[in-house]
Amino acid sequence: MSDLKTAEAAALLNTTPETIRRLIESGDLRAYRLRGESGPWRIEQSQIEEYREKQRSRDPWARTRPRTTQTREARR
Questions:
Q1: Considering the domain boundaries, does residue 48 fall inside one?
Q2: What is the pTM of this model?
Q3: E strands of 2-67, at which residues?
Q4: Is the separation of the CB atoms in 43 and 9 below 8 Å?
Q5: Are 34 and 42 in contact (CB under 8 A)?
Q6: Backbone angles phi, psi at 33, to 5 degrees
Q7: pLDDT-derived band of residue 70, with 50, 70 and 90 as boundaries?
Q8: What tens digit of pLDDT does each residue of 8-56 get?
Q9: Is residue 38 one of the residues assigned to a domain?
Q10: Which residues contact 28 (CB under 8 A, 6 or more apart)?
Q11: CA distance 18 to 68
């Protein structure tokens, strides 16, 4: 299988091409550019699988836990 375009990767991850570009820029998804700095992004299929595996191994409740800004002593 050839390397994926951002739209194809987005379809596999059920997200948008813009989100894929953000993941690439943040370093969460590895990719490379064709034709230098302004070329289109390409993502290897193995990188999609690696990203999925990282997401599965993360704490599923990490985003739903309330963030506390005060310590317990400060609330008393």
A1: yes
A2: 0.71
A3: 32-33, 41-42
A4: yes
A5: yes
A6: -105, 145
A7: low
A8: 999 999 999 999 999 999 999 999 999 888 899 999 999 999 999 888 8
A9: yes
A10: 51, 54
A11: 31
Q: How many CA atoms within 13 Å lie on the side-chain side of 22?
A: 6
Q: How many residues does the chain have?
A: 76
Count of domains observed in the chain: 1
Has residue 52 been placed in a domain?
yes
* Per-residue model confidence (pLDDT) at position 1: 56
Structure token pair of residue 72: 């317990």
CB contact at 8 A, 23 and 41: no
1 located within any domain: no
Output DSSP code: residue 14.
Answer: T
